[in-house]
């Protein structure tokens, strides 16, 4: 079957491309190389895996005359594939977080690799730009790479640009919401200094008994843990923000399949808070809405907002068995970005915020309200 070798960028990809060369949308990973594995074996396995993924062999362009953002297949040849070797005086995690050079989407592939040595251990450092891959895609890539490294044969997934074209056919740019309806915290008019960070971040780890309570609610209501966390946050946002509409980060795979594909199929959807409902009712309604969206299986267009959502929620679970993800962004994607992250049976809540608009006190209050809201959810 002939591969489809180009497409326009999706709505989300266009936003990422516009941020080219900025410290955002970075996805760096560390893979510790086993002692009995030769670096040449890692090189070969990685090269073959990359060559099996046309959507990673991509160059990005902007056609100013037609006002179109495009992505096009550009074959990766072995002769041009090199993995530099470096020796580190600091842990690879610190090195990746402090790295200043960004991937330039206009000049190179949307990823880069290095072999690193640190304290007699060897690592493969691989960083993707989010424009080419999402969490699900990285899990698929990891599985392909590990199989190749172990000498296990497998059928290559049919990953071309057809899925991107399907997304572009379904998505629309009409908004049914006004700017005034979007959720917002009260801005504090904070004076910005030259040494002030461009990104505020607070992290909260749920206590074991709190996470157990979330699981009890999930079981009692027969909903996902994502629905529980999202319902809790809607209750907090209702108390702390004006407006009623916020953004949720999802994935086209949930409604259109293609779970084996390697690519960036992230989607942004708007959700309206129904004020005045109790938290448990909200949780159940979120679950019903999510199931309804899944049942449509991509047969209806997705309405996208041309106005950026000031407040965005996402839920993620660690899907990687060998790759260690290193958060490294130093720039806000949204004014207020709420992330719930589950790994190894623990729940972490992270809020990224714009420190020139919102104070740490405001954001910390929201995190504290999660405790109270969860405590009051009795099933």
From TrEMBL:
- Highest taxon of source: Bacteria
GO BP, one annotated term: secondary metabolite biosynthetic process
Which GO CC annotations does the UniProt entry carry? cytoplasm
Domain called Condensation: residue spans: 8-377
Q: What are the protein's UniProt keywords? A: Repeat
What GO molecular function annotations does the UniProt record carry, in alphabetical order?
Answer: catalytic activity; phosphopantetheine binding
Per its record, how is this protein called by name? Condensation domain-containing protein
């Amino acid at each position: 079957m002939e591969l489809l070798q180009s497409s326009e960028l999706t709505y989300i990809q266009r936003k990422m491309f516009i941020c080219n060369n900025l410290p955002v949308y970075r996805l760096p990973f560390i893979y510790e190389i086993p002692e009995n594995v030769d670096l040449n074996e890692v090189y070969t396995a990685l090269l073959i895996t990359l060559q099996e993924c046309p959507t990673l062999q991509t160059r990005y362009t902007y056609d100013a005359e037609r006002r179109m953002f495009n992505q096009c297949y550009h074959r990766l040849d072995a002769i041009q594939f090199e993995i530099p070797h470096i020796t580190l005086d600091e842990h690879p995690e610190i090195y990746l977080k402090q790295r200043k050079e960004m991937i330039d989407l206009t000049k190179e592939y949307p990823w880069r690799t290095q072999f690193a040595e640190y304290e007699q251990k060897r690592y493969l450092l691989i960083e993707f730009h989010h424009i080419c891959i999402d969490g699900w895609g990285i899990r698929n890539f990891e599985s392909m790479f590990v199989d190749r490294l172990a000498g296990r044969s497998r059928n290559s997934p049919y990953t071309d640009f057809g899925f991107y074209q399907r997304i572009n056919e379904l998505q629309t740019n009409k908004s049914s919401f006004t700017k005034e309806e979007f959720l917002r915290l009260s801005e504090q008019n904070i004076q910005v200094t030259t040494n002030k960070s461009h990104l505020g971040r607070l992290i909260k780890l749920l206590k074991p008994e709190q996470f157990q309570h979330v699981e009890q609610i999930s079981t009692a209501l027969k909903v996902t843990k994502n629905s529980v966390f999202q319902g809790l946050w809607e209750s907090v946002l209702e108390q702390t923000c004006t407006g009623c509409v916020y953004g949720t980060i999802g994935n086209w795979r949930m409604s259109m399949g293609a779970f084996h594909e390697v690519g960036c199929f992230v989607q942004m959807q708007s959700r309206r808070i129904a004020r005045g409902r109790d938290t448990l009712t909200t949780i159940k309604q979120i679950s019903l809405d999510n199931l309804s969206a899944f049942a449509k299986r991509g047969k209806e267009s997705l309405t996208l907002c041309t106005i950026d959502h000031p407040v965005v929620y996402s839920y993620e679970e660690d899907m990687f068995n060998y790759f260690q993800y290193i958060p490294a962004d130093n720039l806000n994607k949204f004014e207020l970005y709420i992330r719930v992250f589950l790994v190894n049976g623990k729940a972490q809540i992270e809020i990224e915020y714009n420190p020139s608009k919102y104070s740490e006190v405001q954001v910390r209050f929201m995190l504290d309200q999660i405790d109270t809201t969860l405590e009051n959810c009795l099933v």
